[in-house]
Design a protein that fits this description.
about 25% strand; alpha/beta; 17 helices; elongated; seven-stranded parallel beta sheet
């Protein structure tokens, strides 16, 4: 039974789902050394934002297959370390979108109407109606940095308040933004144009301190900046100066560079309001985040595909169902190629034929790489780490497309080893994987089981001689295919045999007249 380790508080609904699938241990508040010890035999690690799944922790694991982050951000997971070890990282990108968007609006209205400050004054016994005069949000401009799931939820609500919305997001096409009624612009232009600014991007080396002294100096005096995403997106030292000198009106922060923000001078300012990283802290978001990753982790354990994998390309279910047969085909081609090339491959060319040329093919490429790498590596190779492993072995990969061809939707690979190369064309026929051509020879082979591949000169009696030799050693031939380009020339013979042929018999095959090579392939 799989061991599932939960190291942050998780909703009981999610825990119950996981208990039905494995041996669950809930252990929160662990030190690094305690976590390293407990993770050794774990198959799944389930965390929220508290646990840091660093390289040190990941390297301490021996069986880990999944890191499931019950939330959106995965900056507390070393994605590269997990990928290199073949560990799938899951998250729940949709779980807290509405909760964060609603908190953002609570923060914005609280900041612009001074609600926390007025509440504190009232509780002190004061009745000060003049000191807390605010502004309307109606007709103002909201600048959204990051127009993803949460950013778009924020935009909808802002538009309902009668606000103008502008955004910065280099990954959103302009026509998509236009369809949402949003103008795209640069970060600096957004800072100049906006009355309110909200951040909804992950923390990466590229986004760290993306709002700094330069951007703050561009803002209007009445600007309120809000961050319910990740601490570190704003340069807090520059923000402190801008707020203290009243260069901007205020800030509303749910996240900080150091959490908890003990001794943070920003919290000493009257024009700063804050919350303790509670964007996803609603009952609905916690149930959703926990149950989503729990179900996704179970899918992975069962060998099924999951939708919210961070370190794999994302594909809609209908697209995945369409390319899955070609993933199987690609892996079989990889297994065939590596065995025919005596476990040495330096260069790979992959060509997507027919309508396959218009699909997202990253998963097909990964499947082929898993096929060529699995037989030559003791360590596990999967769809997650196959590209990294190939790169580390200096395997060069090129991809191309060809719309028109005689095989319709098909896949062609050319793999080159030390002194040899192999080319294979395959497609799907009646739902089954079929190899249609090997090294230019027309064939019709279902790649499964034990195959003996013989390259020979086309001479009368060759098929009979091979059959007789194998018969002498009790080897039954289930199926046979022979492909040639012209009579009397080089040919290829593929035998589907009931079991692997011994090295002794293979040596006899190789020594037969007109046989150039003979190799066993197990698929």
């Amino acid at each position: 039974m799989s061991k599932i380790l939960i190291t942050d508080a998780l909703h009981e609904n999610a825990v119950d789902i996981l208990k039905a699938a494995g041996d669950v241990e809930v252990a929160t508040g662990l030190s690094v050394e305690e976590l390293k010890e407990k993770i050794k035999d774990a198959d799944v690690l389930v965390i929220r934002s508290g646990t840091k799944a660093t390289k040190e922790i990941i390297d301490a694991s021996e069986n880990l297959k999944v890191i499931a982050r019950a939330g959106v951000g995965v900056d507390n997971v070393d994605i590269n370390a997990a990928t290199e070890k073949g560990i799938i990282v899951l998250n729940a990108p949709d779980a807290s979108s509405i909760s964060v968007a609603e908190l953002l609006f609570g923060m914005m209205l609280s900041a612009v109407r001074n609600i926390p400050q007025a509440t504190a004054s009232l509780k002190r016994g004061e009745w000060d109606r003049k000191s807390f005069k605010g502004l309307e949000v109606y007709g103002k401009t909201l600048g959204i940095v990051g127009l993803g799931r949460i950013g778009q939820q924020v935009a909808k609500r802002a538009q309902a308040f009668g606000m103008q919305v502008v955004a910065y997001d280099p990954y959103i096409p302009e026509d998509v933004a236009n369809s949402l009624g949003i103008d795209l612009m640069s970060v600096n232009d957004l800072c100049e144009a906006s009355d309110f600014i909200t951040l909804h991007v992950p923390l990466t080396p590229k986004t760290k301190h993306m709002i700094g002294k330069e951007q703050l100096e561009l803002m209007k005096p009445n600007t309120i900046i809000m961050n319910c995403a990740r601490g570190g997106l704003i340069d807090e030292e520059a923000l402190y100066v801008a707020l203290k000198d009243n260069k901007i009106r205020g800030a509303a922060l749910d996240v900080f560079e150091q959490e908890p923000p003990k001794g943070n001078p920003l919290l000493e300012l009257d024009n700063v309001i804050g919350t303790p990283h509670q964007g996803a802290s609603t009952e609905e978001a916690q149930i959703s985040a926990g149950t989503i990753v729990a179900r996704q982790a179970i899918k992975i354990l069962k060998g099924e595909s999951a939708e919210n994998v961070v370190n794999l390309p994302m594909l809609p279910s209908e697209k995945m169902n369409k390319i899955k047969p070609y993933m199987i085909l690609a892996e079989k081609m990889g297994l065939m190629a590596i065995q025919l090339l005596d476990h040495t491959i330096d260069n790979i060319e992959i060509t997507y034929l027919g309508d396959l040329a218009t699909e997202k093919t990253e998963m097909i490429k990964r499947s082929f790489l898993r096929g060529i790498l699995s037989p030559i590596l003791l360590a596990g190779v999967n769809l997650v780490n196959a590209p990294v492993v190939a790169k580390n072995r200096n395997i060069k990969i090129s991809e191309g497309t060809m719309k028109e061809n005689q095989y319709g939707n098909a896949l062609k690979i050319v793999a080159k080893g030390n002194n040899d190369e192999i080319s294979i064309i395959g497609n799907i026929v009646d739902g089954e994987v079929v190899f249609r051509k090997i090294n230019g020879y027309d064939i019709d082979v279902k790649p499964e089981g034990d195959l003996c591949v013989i390259r020979h000169i086309d001479r009368p009696g060759m098929v009979g001689k091979v059959g007789v030799l194998l018969g002498e050693y009790g080897i039954n031939i289930a199926k046979m295919q022979v492909g040639r380009k012209e009579p009397g020339g080089h040919s290829i013979m593929i035998l589907d045999v009931d079991h692997t042929i011994s090295e002794d018999v293979m040596s006899k095959l190789k020594s037969m007249d007109n046989v150039r090579t003979a190799k066993m392939v197990t698929l």
